[in-house]
Specification:
Blueprint lengths: L1 E6 L11 H4 L4 H15 L2 E6 L3 H13 L4 E5 L8 H10 L3 E5 L21 E4 L4 H16 L1
Parallel strand pairs: 1-2, 1-3, 3-4, 4-5
């Protein structure tokens, strides 16, 4: 099984950006966590982050050609704004779990909107970076049950 862990804008600034909201865990810590969990679960993992909407769309489309089995995706602010990303997820048909480090349901009103959720098979929020592990397990276990 192959999983793409995809991160949108500012996720590369974890530990720097608003630590009172996102904590002090760094992006490098996040990558280490998902890679080590992938090794334990015996799955291939690819990680990609971009601050650019079109790059994220390209990564989603590339996942189709690379025969990725599942996507763990924290779209960052594009969650609330990007129909292009929604359309890309719908187009490729790859099971995608939407992940948010914080509980966006308890934050600003504009964060209540998620275009990505319309195509996601599951949403995990408010679990810190452990939400990525939960998303990976959901995809892996779902694959084994199918």
């Amino acid at each position: 099984m192959k999983i793409l862990v995809l991160n949108g804008p500012n996720i590369n600034f974890l530990g720097i950006r608003e630590p009172q909201i996102y904590g002090r865990t760094t992006y490098a810590d996040l990558l280490e966590l998902v890679k080590s969990h992938a090794a334990v679960r015996n799955v291939e993992i690819e990680c990609y982050q971009s601050n650019h909407e079109g790059d994220l769309v390209d990564a989603i489309q590339k996942a189709y050609y690379d025969r990725i089995d599942g996507i763990v995706f924290n779209p960052g602010a594009y969650t609330h704004t990007s129909i292009a990303i929604l359309d890309a997820i719908k187009a490729v048909g790859i099971p995608t779990v939407e992940v948010h480090i914080t509980n966006v349901a308890k934050r600003e009103e504009f964060r209540q909107i998620s275009y990505v959720r319309a195509a996601a098979v599951k949403t995990i929020m408010g679990q810190g970076i452990d939400g990525y592990v939960q998303a990976m397990d959901f995809l892996i276990d779902g694959e084994k049950q199918a």
